[in-house]
Amino acid sequence: MQQFDLNLSSGVEQIELPVDDEHRKEGAIVKFQSDYLGPQQAIDFYNKLYKQVDWQKETLWIFGEERLVPRLVAWYGDPEAEYRYSGKLHKPLPWIRPLQDIKEQLEQTLGCCFNSVLCNLYRDGSDSMGWHADDERELGSNPVIASVSLGAKRAFHLKHKKNPKLRHKMSLTSGSLLVMQGATQKFWLHQVPKEPKITEARINLTFRKVIL
Ligand SMILES: O=C(O)CCC(=O)C(=O)O
Ligand SMILES: [Fe+2]
């Protein structure tokens, strides 16, 4: 089992979440580095991405009703990295410079490679992402998901799929990197809850490797 390490050892928090006996070896590991990007670098990327990403409204079918997802989204990647989420097949848009720059930096840091990124724009605290796991078949069984946050600080919650009393709360600050790996998606759900008091926007990028 390959484990990915953040090369920058300073200030990296590592959380090992409970799994079952069968998956003890791979573990469910979450790593967090609050200052992965410097403050100015984070602002520069935020401004470029806010302008350059082709932000889209997206709909989702819930109980036979088509609803708008409470955030804007965009999917970028290698041409063949198609990905199904929210019940729809997404063809990636071609890479733009700032996304490619962050991807390359992450690949160096983590020693693994990504072929796509889901971009989310939370316009303010009334935007959110509900409980889910990034456990789509296209990502393989133990995906490494690298999540970069820019802009407003937002809460990030983790909850065990079978034992909802097991929970973790984190605060994703601008410039931070969160890596979920091992069996995290198999055993745990995550969400970005609504925070009505927040008036600033946040961009989140989750880099993934779609298995072709
Ligand atoms: O915005 C975040 O921090 C989480 C995004 C996420 O979970 C996803 O894109 O699957
Ligand atoms: Fe997710």
UniProtKB/TrEMBL annotation:
Keyword entries, A-Z: Dioxygenase, DNA damage, DNA repair, Iron, Magnesium, Metal-binding, Oxidoreductase
Keyword Ion transport: no
GO MF annotation: an example: catalytic activity, acting on DNA
Cofactor: Fe(2+)
Segments passing through the bilayer: none
Domain Fe2OG dioxygenase: 113-211
Keyword Oxidoreductase: yes
Coiled-coil regions, chain positions: none
Short name of one Pfam family: 2OG-FeII_Oxy_2
InterPro entries: AlkB-like (IPR027450), AlkB-like_sf (IPR037151), ALKBH3 (IPR032854), Oxoglu/Fe-dep_dioxygenase_dom (IPR005123)
BP-aspect Gene Ontology terms: DNA alkylation repair
SUPFAM superfamilies recorded: Clavaminate synthase-like
PANTHER family to which the protein is assigned, alphabetical: ALPHA-KETOGLUTARATE-DEPENDENT DIOXYGENASE ALKB HOMOLOG 3
Protein name: 2OG-Fe(II) oxygenase
Organism, as annotated: Kangiella sediminilitoris
